[in-house]
# Entry
Amino acid sequence: SNWNSKIYCETGIKLFRSCKRIARSTLPVSMKANANLIMGGSLDFQDVQLTMVNRKPSLVYHMKGVHPFLNIVSLNIDNIFVGNCDIKIGRIHIGSYCSILKRKFM
# Structure
């Protein structure tokens, strides 16, 4: 499936035990991936009773909760595209978010 989003990135350097932001940008991201998922859920009921309502038998209950779950069995990322990758201070190019993301995910 295809996934499109934006990632907010900040770049900083550590000065005197604190991190000072030197650049920030919002990067458009698109990704093509395949995944195997297990999805399910449970419903919790309490005080379940079979009673007569308007002369008809009816099931009366109190719903206590809905508990969905999702397990990712496998995830294969086929392609990642990131735009506006350059990290710049003014006009000086100091790095690229693309290389960082590719090392992390590919």
